[in-house]
Amino acid sequence: MEMKEIVAQGASAFGVTLEEGALSQFQVYCDLLLEWNEKMNLTAIRKPEEVAVKHFVDSLSLLSVCIIPQKANVIDIGTGAGFPGMPLKIARDDLSLTLLDSLNKRLVFLRELAGRLGLKAELLHLRAEEGGRQPALRERFDVAVSRAVASLNLLAEYCLPYVKVGGVFASMKGPDVQEELEQAKQAVSLLGGKIREVKTFALPDGSGRSVILIDKVAPTPGKYPRHGSKIAKRPL
Fold it and tell me: CATH 3.40.50.150: does it fit domain 69-233?
């Protein structure tokens, strides 16, 4: 099965219908990702069919578990090679997308990618905790998404400051999140969040996934986020 067909079928299983133009954009994305991966480490995945499932379909699964309003202002924090933000933008061009990452070389790739795909996205070269303190970014987004590997009590401090009251933070995780949830309850509450629910599902290759949905119910206190070293050494 070719890459585009895998994406189309995988997306359809999550209730996402992709037109031929979007599937062609995913093909360009895959080709460019693997081409650039030869000269910089963007992904450990090397096969197109695995990129289709583990990056593209995984990212699109968010649309089945999180209701994202039309023309929502979305920020992808620690976006890496653009996941999940760019696949969401391909499927939903109405979204206003911001991609944030601390490594500029990734943003160079994303700038090239956005140009090739003809998509608009704001690219920010910042550490997450720096951006969360900037008035232009703080509590300005309807949805914050992250597929980062940090534990949820850390991610909450990095990501919730970006979300406006009434918005949502969607943390994309592997299958085992119960311990993380318990450890993060205090942090989420301190930062103005409330854990709504955890959605669990499997990708087409059988690998388990979870999405933790956290509602922003109150403003984040001004002292958060702290400096990155403090977040790491003394998690909330």
Answer: yes
